[in-house]
Amino acid sequence: MDTERLREAMGRAIELARSHRPHPNPRVGAVLLDPEGRLISEGAHVAPGRPHAEVVALSAAGSRSRGATMVVTLEPCAHTGRTPPCVDAIVGAGVVRVVVGAVDPDPRVSGAGIRRLRDAGIEVVEHVLSAECEDLDPAYFHHRRTGRPLLTLKTASTLDGQTAAADGTSQWITGPAARRDAHRLRAAADAVVVGAGTLRADDPRLTVRLDGYRGPQPVPVVVAGSAPLPERARLWERDPIIVATEPRERGRTIVVPAGPDGLPDLEAAVRALAAEGLLDLLIEGGPTLAGALWRRGLIDRGVTYLAARIAGGEGRGIFGGVFSTLGDARAIRLRDVRRVGDDLRVAWVVDEGAFPIA
Ligand SMILES: NC(=O)c1ccc[n+]([C@@H]2O[C@H](COP(=O)([O-])OP(=O)(O)OC[C@H]3O[C@@H](n4cnc5c(N)ncnc54)[C@H](OP(=O)(O)O)[C@@H]3O)[C@@H](O)[C@H]2O)c1
């Protein structure tokens, strides 16, 4: 079987993986090929606790797995979680070759799966379309490497950088095309996070509202200080998570320690959200929360919508806080710049090599 066929099969495994979001587990897809490279079966990991992609493909193949090649986007697991190790299932099924996309950075796997396969006499081919396999699930890889969820900051401002007017009005700064695009970002996220100030000012729903969208809704999260939360808010119907330093009267509180300012410690806050299985966080502001996260170095990437409008004065910037000296401005890498409707969309990452964004 030639390399081109293996890459093509990996492309199909990537497609299978992409159609599900099993966080906090990774997206994984697998295909089984017979010795001539013909497709025997396919599998994807659909949700936590459900069989892994490799096992789905093996079960569908039955006895046809003997002598087959498995092509899988992520290194098969070697540990027992909610399901038994995939390496045992692969060895038991008589697979003779495993083609792996990305090596699993999870400390419980991290090369151990590949070693176990080789020890059992199975040929292992590594790093086939590995970058594409990691791009499938940047939040998973980021979380396993850093212990933190992946934070994407979404903002909409006038071309001169104002996210809201001095009187607090901000809906809508950008046009309908940019707003639709922002809903796509929500659809891709596990959770949408705002500060209590935005909850009070905007009464947001934080839902995906796209024509024909039937996928999961992101979990709404409010990071709150100690000031009262509004009595009535559309978000209460969605039972949001409230991250606070003490139990709150509304939603489901996640209690985290206070930082020196008495407000929730943001590093602890995002780690607590990851522990809830929320690995891909879309931060939607406002400026106070965005500024605090930025200064803590917690923002990994962003999508900035710049409206074809000039505010012509100082209302509220993208980030609260003071910009004291030019040396404090950090260089970021632009990944994609395009027009959406009348507005501009700029996608950026903080570090080179970090996560794709589109
Ligand atoms: N154009 C846009 O993209 C966009 C997006 C979102 C919001 N907005 C606008 O932004 C404005 C609201 O922004 P805002 O700055 O007042 O509110 P915010 O950033 O949404 O919320 C700030 C609040 O977050 C809470 N908080 C909890 N932990 C914190 C921490 N460690 N550091 C900082 N804050 C913490 C505090 O709540 P307590 O008050 O409970 O102490 C704080 O007052 C509204 O006008 C809204 O329309 C614009």
Describe the protein.
This protein folds into 2 domains: 3-136, Cytidine Deaminase, domain 2 (3-Layer(aba) Sandwich); 142-349, Dihydrofolate Reductase, subunit A (3-Layer(aba) Sandwich), CATH 3.40.430.10. The protein is built from 10 helices and 16 strands. The chain has helices at 3-18, 53-61, 86-92, 112-119, 130-135, 138-146, 176-188, 196-202, 266-275, 287-295; strands at residues 29-33, 39-44, 69-74, 97-102, 123-125, 150-158, 162-164, 191-195, 219-223, 241-244, 252-255, 280-283, 301-307, 316-317, 333-340, 343-349. β8 (191-195), α8 (196-202) and β9 form a beta-alpha-beta unit. α3 (86-92) packs parallel to α4 (112-119). The two termini are 34 Å apart. Bound molecules: NADP nicotinamide-adenine-dinucleotide phosphate (NAP). NADP nicotinamide-adenine-dinucleotide phosphate is lined by residues 155-157, 163-164, 168, 170, 173, 194-198, 201-202, 223-227, 259, 263-264, 266, 284-289, 292, 316, 320.
Write a brief caption for the model.
By secondary structure, the protein is α/β, with parallel strands linked by helices.
Note the main sheet. Answer: 9 strands, mixed
CATH superfamily placement of the largest domain: Dihydrofolate Reductase, subunit A
Overall shape: elongated
Number of helices: 10
Structural class: alpha/beta
* Strand content bin: 15-25%
The percent of residues in helical segments reads 25-40%
> Mean pLDDT score, rounded?
94
CATH class of the largest domain: Alpha Beta
Distance between the termini: 34 Å
Number of strands: 16
CATH architecture of the largest domain: 3-Layer(aba) Sandwich
Any idea what the radius of gyration is? 23 Å
Low-confidence stretches: none
Which molecules are bound in this entry?
NADP nicotinamide-adenine-dinucleotide phosphate
Tell me the count of domains: 2
The arrangement of helices and strands along the chain is HEEHEHEHEHHEEHEHEEEHEHEEEE
